[in-house]
Design goal:
By secondary structure, the protein is of the alpha/beta class. The chain has a single domain, classed as Rossmann fold (3-Layer(aba) Sandwich). 40% of the residues lie in helices and 19% in strands. The protein is built from 5 helices and 5 strands. A 5-stranded mixed beta sheet has the order 1-3-2-4-5, sandwiched between helices. Strand 4, helix 3 and strand 5 form a beta-alpha-beta unit. Helix 2 crosses helix 3. The protein is globular and about 40 Å long.
């Protein structure tokens, strides 16, 4: 799905705020941005105000955007179509642990070999969808101080 305006400015290393929120920060990249948007709509129906940020470049990471959002919401979910080791989630974890530790949950591939299937089948199999983002949000919000 196309969710950016044709005139959306792309700046390397600068995150794009998709939706402002107050209860949880969802940092997503790639295909998972759309899934985060869908999760955010469902979370809103549950009374959860999710801040969704598109981290389209992981290196350099927009540290300022990460910290600003984490300070506001007090908990973080990262969502990526990638191994959970060494990707977006770990990059954000390094920023948080060094500057503003808050609870974090990952939505990512759990270090396993890939399989064959349609993209939709694989995204579902590896938990890379709105349903799993919602589960991660609920889990991380329970850990929030």
């Amino acid at each position: 799905p196309i969710f950016t305006a044709p005139d959306q400015e792309f700046i390397i290393g600068k995150a794009w705020m998709v939706n402002e929120g107050a209860d949880v920060s969802i940092f997503a990249t790639g295909h998972l941005v759309w899934e985060a948007i869908q999760a955010g709509e469902q979370l809103a129906e549950m009374g959860i105000d999710a801040e969704i940020i598109n981290i389209h470049t992981i290196k350099p990471l927009d540290v300022e955007a990460v910290l600003k959002s984490a300070r506001k919401t007090g908990c973080v979910v990262t969502a990526e179509e990638h191994n959970r080791l060494g990707g977006l989630g770990d990059s954000i974890a390094q920023v948080l642990v060094g500057h503003h530790p808050v609870p974090q949950e990952y939505v990512a591939v759990n270090d396993s070999f890939g399989e064959s299937g349609t993209p939709e089948q694989l995204m579902k199999k590896y938990g890379l969808d709105a349903e799993h983002i919602i589960k991660a949000v609920k889990k991380v919000m329970e850990r929030k101080k």
